[in-house]
Amino acid sequence: MANLEAKTYISPLELGILVITTCLGAQIMLSPRALIAAVGQMAWISIIIGGVIFYVATCLMLKLGKQYPDETLVEYMPRLFGRVGGVVVIFWFNLLLFSQVIQVFSGVGKVITFYMFDRTPPEVVIMALLILCTYCALQNFGTILRLQQILFVVAYSLLAVIWMTSILNFQPENLLPLWRLNTGAIFNGSISTWPMYSGYECVLLLLPLVHRQASFPKLAKVMGGAFIYVSLYLVLFFILIIGVLTVDNAKDVPYPVLTVIRSVELPGTFIERLENYLLLAWIPVVFDSLMTGMFFMAQTCMRQYCCVDHRPWVLALVPIIYVGSMLLLDDRQASDAVSKCTLWAALGFSFGIVPLSLVLSWLHRRKAVARCG
Q: Pick from 102, 147, 210, 332: most CB atoms within 10 A?
């Protein structure tokens, strides 16, 4: 019988689905208030511009990965930056994943406790979710890929259907005025949308699994489709939030998505408290992104230290993730500081380290050609 967990390659389409499911996650619920407060009615424009910016970053990563089709960043970064520099770059990459994971665990624990289990300590909620994510991250890549594909079809569709019920309270005039453009706020807001798109960095780990026949234009086209999907999903959320609550109301509530859906009353039905149904559809989406984040961190550590199995690294990360989540749980200042540092570290990696790596790769190839000549 074939081993269904064995997966030595993936198609470009599967890579696109992996990027979508890694990007779309907890930030649908956690990030809207801050962006709307900063940008106002034009928050949805910041989402679109942010999608373009981070799509460009993804194309740079694809270009870099195509220079080393059989290797991940763990193998070629030490050759580009030297032994010490390569370790720093790999640690930087893993630290980005780690900081995002602990922020999501902390945020999800607060949301679920507040809206669903108000007598349950958030530490218990985080521990339960962490155990589930750990169990799945211990599986092989084939199992994780199949789970991602199932959730992509089921969870994201269900989440969108429930969210669309908020259109019953939508008032188009709340989106006005459309002509007051604060370009500075819009651009700054687009940069701050990175948490909503974070996860595209996984292409630096997954490119060796993609068919070697997949050219850069084909991969860029697939990634373009993935970013369009994520951007449209996010734009739908933001337009409905502003259209139902107005900007002034949306920026004054901690979780405007749940406030919007709580106000929906379906005529002629017995269904009440739609926010609970939305949360039940959102939790698998969060679980999906957290589980893959833990898996990618463990894979990076496994490759860096030349191990044959990623599972011990998953188990080693569990207490670190739990402690990190607890440190952010009740300390708003620490959470904001970590969020800001993570944003700038991510921008530095995507638009500093990756372009520099491309330049170093080109210089190394030029030297190799000169020696051969």
A: 102
